[in-house]
Design brief:
Elements lengths: L31 E2 L5 E5 L2 H4 L12 H12 L3 E2 L6 E2 L2 E5 L13 H18 L3 E4 L1 H12 L10 H4 L4 E2 L4 E2 L12 H14 L5 H8 L1
Parallel strand pairs: 2-5, 2-6, 6-8
Antiparallel strand pairs: 1-5, 3-4, 7-8
Amino acid sequence: MKNVTGRTSNPFGLRPPFDRTPDGERTAVFGYGDANADFHVVGDHPGVHGGKRTGVPFTETESDRGVQDVFRETGFVTGPEDEPDLENLYLNYLHMCCLPNGHEPTQQGYDDLERYFDAELRAINAHVLLPVGETATDHVIREYTTQRRRLNLEMADLHARQIRGRGFMVVPIRDPTAWEDGDRERIGSSLTEILASDYRQTKGVATLVG
């Protein structure tokens, strides 16, 4: 894929393999942000984490703007909420295709889109992956670390934890709809700690440790 770094939305020109939306509705919510980012936030699908109106992941709902706000506070995000400016940050979904309201992706749908997600993730080539919610966290830990069997998929425990992966550091984020007192501060503190470290060494270290 060609890295079209001048484009903020869908910089690699992905085309969804299927369209299951009514006529006139948005087909997909594509990846958005800095195509050379070190930090890559991974959500589930537009019906859960927003963007069917704006075309931008993690917009439209108060809970998912909570994720955006954490990255604003740590210096990654500026500009309007529905069309933010991202620096060193990329956002996308496991299942980029939109579905009619009330419909959830099938396992076949996730499977059909997995190769597109994986190709985009490797094209971004970030150092830190930040999956949001249980579905994205399960996929990222299973596919990009060797630690899935060692970890209980309890998001309250995994939230903001720094996990070494195969060429990545993985930092899960609990779904904002389930945040409790302190969860917002925990992910902010983890991001601040990573930014203060030599996190670009993650790839070499993670390959050995993960």
